[in-house]
Amino acid sequence: MTWLKDMFGVEKPIIAMCHLQALPGDPHYDRAGGMAKVVDLALHDLRHLQGGGVDAVMFSNEFSLPYLTRVRPETTAAMARVIGELHRDIRVPFGVNVLWDPIACIDLAAATGALFMREIISGVYASDFGLWNTNVGDTARHRAALAPALRMLYNIVPEAAVYLGNRSPVDIARTTVFNNGPDALCVSGLTAGAETDTQVLAQVKAAVPDTAVLCNTGCRIDNIERQLAVADGAVVGTTFKIDGRFANLVDPERVRAFMQRVRSVR
Question: Quick one: 2-261 is in which CATH superfamily?
Answer without folding.
Answer: Aldolase class I (3.20.20.70)
